[in-house]
Structure formats: C-alpha cells, structure tokens
Amino acid sequence: MHRQENALFTDHTAPSEGAVVWLTGLAGSGKTTVAEILAERWRERGVPPILLDGDVMREVLDRRGGYDPGSRLKMAFTYGKFACALARQGHLVIVATISLFHAVQRWNREHAPRYCEVLLDVPMPELHRRDKKGLYSGSDPECVVGLGQPAQFPEHPDVVVDNHGGVSPHRAADRIMEKADELFSAVTPAKIGLARRQKEKV
Q1: Which residues are 23's β-sheet partners?
Q2: Which residue, among 152, 107, 144, 108, has the nearest Cα to 127 in the 3D structure?
Q3: Digitized pLDDT (tens) for each residue of the chain, 202 residues in all
Q4: Closest Cα partner for 96 from 13, 29, 17?
Q5: Which of 30, 35, 92, 127 sits a CA distance of 20 to 30 A from 52?
Q6: Strand partners, 119
Q7: Model-level pTM?
C-alpha cells in the first residue's frame, strides 16, 4: 500500500496516518499558548487536532501529586503512549508538556507514526520574570524542573524556538508549522530520517 505523496495535514482531506507534535520546555516557556495557536491553525485547515496539555492531563488522570522525578517520568511516558496511540488511529496530536526525559523523547520518536519534537527555549531570567505563580521563587525548589530537578533537554529536536524577546507566540507557531509541514510531507523512510535529524533555531 503506497502512501499518498502529498503534504499531510495541509488541506481539507483526512490524513492517511497520524502524527505527534511534541512541545516541551521548562515551566513558563509558553507551551500551552503556542499549542493553542497551533491547534487553531490546523482547525483552519480543516484538520481538528487533539490537544493534550500536561496540566489538564494531570487532572484528567487524577494524579495531582507526584512531582518527584520518578512520578514525572511515569506521567511523561503516559502522555507519550497516549499521544502515539491516538496518532496511530490517524489523529494529529499536539502535546504541551515539560516531560524533559531523554528516555521519553526517544520512545516517542521510535513509536509515533510521524513526529515533530519542539523545544521552546527561554532563559531562566525571563522565566522568573514571567512567573506569576511564584513557581521559581517558591519555598520548594526541589519540585521544580530546571532548579531542584535536572532537565534533560531534547538531544535532537526538530525545531528549537527561542520563545522570548522579539519572538511572539504566533511567530513561534509559524516556524513550528513550517517544520511540521516539511516532516509530515516526507513519504519515504530515508526522507523521514533525514528530516528528523534536521535542527532549526529561531
């Protein structure tokens, strides 16, 4: 069975196979905002995606505790497995989550039918400036990834967006859409492998 040689998720036709767009970064890096913009962009194309936000998923799964590294790792794998299961049924899935574990990132890349890994990179001083909830200045830094817990940033992200300064969330979404279109229109394993090794930085 031959794959259709067209750019998936770019027109009003149903996709032949699904994909996962995985947005990761530290708390406050803009993952939810950018994910919501991406979801709206694809809806405008006639392809409603499934948006999985890490905070919302915690409530849905009723696992509000467990912010230690072991619990975070288990939850991150849950997000990845859930997203890949949906993608295998032909859905476009956007995931916005911290989940900064190399093991999870590698698992996603191996199991998702199509995969676009995005790192939203924001320097710590800017994260402190944005921190309305007091996460980074709180009394329990051991629960915060990037402070008391190490952050395993993606080894080979498909897109790195410096999501601060002159880069607006809409501009960040533009760059992600461009890269996703490139990756999802690849039709051979060789092309897909080449595209996945590419790294862009805004």
Answers
A1: 96, 118
A2: 144
A3: 333 333 455 544 444 579 999 999 999 999 999 999 999 999 999 999 999 999 899 888 876 558 889 999 999 999 999 999 999 999 999 999 999 999 999 999 999 999 999 999 999 999 999 988 888 887 677 889 989 899 999 999 999 999 998 899 999 999 999 999 999 885 434 333 333 444 455 5
A4: 29
A5: 127
A6: 24, 160
A7: 0.83
178 contacts: CB under 8 Å, gap ≥ 6: none
How far is it, in rounded angstroms, from Cα 83 to Cα 67?
21
Place of tokens 């805004």: 202
Domains of the chain: 19-201 (3.40.50.300)
Residues catalogued as catalytic = 99
